Amino acid sequence: MNTEVISVEQVQHPTTMELFTGFMKLGLMGFGGVLPLAHHMIVKEQKWLSSEQFTNLLGVCQILPGGNIINMAVAIGMEFQGIKGALSSVLGLIFAPTLIVILIYQLYSHFQSIPTVQHMIQGLAAAAAGLLFATGLKMLKPILKSYLTLFTLTLTIIFMLFLKLPLALTLLILVAVNLFILGVRKA
User: Fold this and answer.
1) Is residue 121 part of a domain?
2) Which range among 22-36, 43-57, 63-77, 157-171 shows the weakest confidence by mean pLDDT?
3) Range of the domain at 157
4) Residue range 26-47, pLDDT digits in tens
5) pLDDT value of position 112
6) Whole-angstrom Cα distance, residue 74 to residue 4?
7) pLDDT digit string, tens, across residues 95-120
8) Measured distance CA(80)–CA(82) in Å, rounded
9) Where are the transmembrane segments (predicted)?
10) Residue 125: inside a domain, yes or no?
């Protein structure tokens, strides 16, 4: 596994066209399970962000309304090219997949009752879950560097999976706990 870390100085500054084509490629390649491919494209291929920047930005994007990758496209586009960059990134990300969804829906509506098609859909769902799990493991690496972040991750798992607290309440509790810990550290 390549664990190369890039510094902020090594980050590339893409043009609006590079943002459009980069996110269009991502939208085409990552149809349905784009997070693992987004990390690879944004961090390793294009070097627009470091792995730590990607993880931090994804954390912010997850608490915002809307899709994580759409939010990330907007944030990255805004960072490098302002509003034009944000629009280029989002349009690139959704253009080709939107056309493909329309075509696939037309096909699926004709063949959805065939058992082979149903099994294929179940297999695709399992593969998507595996990709998401693998990406989660990759994202743990930068998180493991900080005890506070690891503690927050553990509390999140406890609150969400075991106590089944709502997301908003979990976030409020975790923000309060983190602010308290950071305040104690400074004192």
Assistant:
1) no
2) 22-36
3) 146-187
4) 988 876 668 888 999 999 999 9
5) 85
6) 26
7) 988 998 899 889 888 888 899 988 99
8) 6
9) 20-38, 86-108, 120-137, 144-162, 168-184
10) no
Cα first-last separation, the chain: 40
C-alpha dihedral, 148 to 6 to 26 to 34, nearest 10°: -20
Report how many domains make up the chain: 2
Does 134 share its domain with 164? Answer: no
Asked whether residue 105 is domain-assigned, the answer is yes
* Rounded Cα–Cα distance for residues 71 and 62 (Å): 8
Residue-by-residue DSSP string for 123-164: HHHHHHHHHHHHHHHHHHHHHTT-HHHHHHHHHHHIIIIIS-
Alpha carbon 116 to chain centroid, angstroms: 31
Pull the structure tokens for residue 149.
């972040």
Do 97 and 63 have their domain in common? yes
In 3D, which of 176, 27, 8 has the Cα closest to residue 91? 27
